[in-house]
Amino acid sequence: QPELGKPMRNCYSLPGPDFTYGMYMHKRDGGVPEAIGHWDSVKAKPRKRVMPRDFVTMGRGAVDEGCTTAREFALYYKFMDIRLKDKQLLRYGCKIPPGMTFGMPPRPSTPFFDLMQHRYKELWMEHQRARTVVQHVVKKKIGEVRENRTTFLRTHPLPVKEESFWHPQRFEKVWAPH
Hints:
InterPro entries: CFAP77. Pfam families: CFAP77. This is CFA77 protein. This protein is mainly α. The chain contains 6 helices and no strands. Among the domains are: about 50-85, no CATH class; about 110-145.
């Protein structure tokens, strides 16, 4: 039974005070002084950069050889590995101009004098007034009667047709005595 107010004890016995938990590394266990004093430096190996494949040149060569199917093109690309020659290529394949700067130019600073004189409020008010005038003009145009076929025929009547005595075709060949 555990003691009152205390958790039940574990049945394992712990090792003595001289026991070290973890793994002891004989070579590098010099603590902080060794870590600060002796850095592990790795010399960089000169690595040759592999240029990307030149698919345009390979495609032209495949067409010159007479390749027509996707399989033939794939075999041609496999055996004729042509790489780009220019060494000033970016990762995405475009050349860097000599004086190029990347990024967006900064926004021009807001003139403090315009802020103090409420210039932006005045510009907004002018814009709202102009918008109201345009809306009134549009409303007036909508209020007018629109031209339709009836009003057009009232103002421009059709020419009067001469009356023709038309007969059905079956009565035209009737023999009439003279």
